[in-house]
Amino acid sequence: MITIISIILLIAIVAVLFVNLSPQFGANPSKEKVLQYEKLDYFENGKFSNLMPTNMDMDFTEAIKMLPEFFKNDPTRRPDFELPIEYRDSLELVNKDHPTRLVWFGHSSFLLQIDGKTILIDPMFSEVPSPHPLLGKKRYSKELPIEVEKLPQIDMIIMSHDHYDHLDYESIQKLKGKTKSFYMPLGMGAHFEDWGVDSTKIHELGWWDEIQADGLLLALTPARHFSGRGLNNRFSTLWGSWVIRGESDNIFFSGDSGYGPHFKQIGEKYGPFNFAMMECGQYNERWTDIHMVPEETAQAAKDIRAKTFMPIHWAAFTLAMHSWTDPVERVIAKAKEINQPVYVPEIGEFIELDKNLETERKWWLEPKALPNSMISNK
């Protein structure tokens, strides 16, 4: 009995030390900033809140019951073949004499090049979306389209919220020295300052705030979600979606969000958009208020008045119980039903907005022989 108690205490001590000493958890906003947030309509009792009632209830008993289902060995929840990846060369990314284009890294991470600027959106480049590699499941792809170290200088990083599958400590450590500025929702700057980013480079926005950033209009728009990286700081930072408007292109990035009237409000204020990246994956009937199901994703794209949208938040990690191809199959079917153009690029492919975006093949259903141009250049 003494041995068992000792082991339990040791585990508890290690857990407490890990949470309090590990840099991955970041930091909480200062008391001075919290006092400023109190003036906002969507901040109360020390927490940010959604614009509409949002069910976040999942008691301990229900969470425990869900664990066996989540860790079930279901082969449909990840690919059984190597996903096709187009590998990018650092030299082609340095060239800025081209129309607006994006590169998708899978899940919700993008490189965007617009009006001569190079931007990263939610750069999560590690293998596991968690504070420690042993606490999560690995990325589907063994490699990224380009290694983080080979990326060119980054003009700005844009963040949607602070969850581990979007904000990654290791990635920021590799990127902070080559990034000019960072844009994020309120409160998130505490993480970046704790991780050694110069505070003069950090720009925090509230919902509907706009900022001129190196010739681009950036606007943080609402999302229906939540935040938190530790055990007791849920809702301590804000979450949101982004409008990125350049000289000729208007782009929307949804971040994570449940469906709601905010999409129509965004479309009315900032639309139409010629391209939108819309959350579509890691959903479940238990948390439909904070993650859209695919049919809602297609409708949300129509609400914001998107000429074309692509489903994101899938094809990299298993964070829910549905099959890994369920998001893309369902969203394509719904988009066709409501006559909403949808585009599903391969990971690493150049998404060139001056071209007619059409999905060439259902690459998520079967592997293909990789030509020399798609062989890793490591």
TrEMBL record:
Entry superkingdom: Bacteria
CC per GO annotation: cytoplasm
Domain Metallo-beta-lactamase: 118-314
UniProt-listed InterPro entries: Metallo-B-lactamas (IPR001279), NAPE-PLD (IPR024884), RibonucZ/Hydroxyglut_hydro (IPR036866)
Example GO molecular function: N-acylphosphatidylethanolamine-specific phospholipase D activity
Pfam families reported in the protein's UniProt record: Lactamase_B_2
Name of the featured protein: L-ascorbate metabolism protein UlaG, beta-lactamase superfamily
